[in-house]
Specification:
About 5% of the residues have low confidence. By secondary structure, the chain is mainly beta. It folds into four domains: about 40 residues, no CATH class; about 90 residues, no CATH class; about 110 residues, no CATH class; about 100 residues, Jelly Rolls (Sandwich), CATH 2.60.120. β10 and β11 form a beta hairpin. The longest helix has 17 residues. It contains two helices and 26 strands. It has a seven-stranded mixed β-sheet, with no helix packed on it. Strands 17, 18, 20, 23, 24 and 26 form a six-stranded antiparallel β-sheet that branches. Helices cover about 5% and strands about 40% of the residues.
Length: about 400
Amino acid sequence: MAKFDDKVNGNTVSADEYNNMVRASKNLIEDSGQTIDSSNTQLSKAVANYVASGSFYTDSGIANAYVLNTTGSFQAPTAYVDGMEVRFRTSNTNTGASTINVNGLGAKNIKNSDGTTDILAGFISNNRDISLRFYNDCFIPSNEITQATISTAGQSLLPDQITISNGTDSDHDIDFTAGNFQFDDGSGQAVATALTKQIDAAWVAGDNAGGLFTGSVAADTFYYCFVIKNLSTGVIDAGFDPSYSSPTLPSGYTKKAYRGAILTDGSGNIKNGSYTFFNGGYRFIYSTAVLNYSATTPAYNTYNITCPPFSLALIDGDLANSSTASYTKFQVGSTIEGGGIFSGVISSTVASRSAITPPFPIKVDSNSQIKFGYVDGIACAYSLYINGWIEYL
């Protein structure tokens, strides 16, 4: 008999003790998928296999109630213990609070990493590996990504910008690309699939569906495009609202991110143009410049123009006077930044017009206003156009 100095009772191994040791080693080796041979490395390989794969399970449950079973011939745990990890893949995406039952040990709640709040819909996703750890009588994520917020440091998804463009029905539809977005309130982020939403129909969840959050589409009106999320169901969608700062979101949707603006024409159709997105914002150029004002010698004052609030309006225009020996000074400026640019017409005739430095960017205020008008010289005729705008998101 061999001597075992660490034995509790005695220094030798009895026949029963020896047989138990052999059987345990044999079971461990065979359960790991090996056939017993004369190799002296099989036990260490078996332990390595358990470490690598022993925590992976198959699911035979349903959405929100997951039932896990061991894979292959691995031995199953006989009790829940803090620190126990399970990994599995399911075809049943959860729709809300969920439980998990491992090897018939009893259903346990799945909670967020705080161990208190229930997981949201979509946390357990179809055909995606899920890793959970048992702690304090529930399972919590063992690899949860902490969202970065304005007050909490954490990990975030690499940026994949969601952009907008005119849809196939360019008069009524806007296409939102797939991507991820930060909530406007800085409380987290989400991933969206591509969607097409219709401005001429009341909002309905889903692709190729109505997108208007409130009311019916109006003529000559700005609508602001948002991607939105329902935290209770995990559903992500998109749509339009006439309010830039306080959109009326569909019931249950509490998170949003602004993605750009569209303008309707006199018939309630979307004015067409091209969107060019860049890191941090986008530029929109109308297919045909929009005439905002045409008058004779307007006083230098504050006026509304057809651009989203706080955007950089791309101004274009021209002016002229009827004198052959005098001049006109016309100024365009921002109500926010002050100052302005001058465009002068000297010794001009009506048939010879002077362009206002096109297209010049002017910062508009919260009411989409700028300042412009005649400041010196003789009477003039003028036209002011908007080519488009630049917005920072």
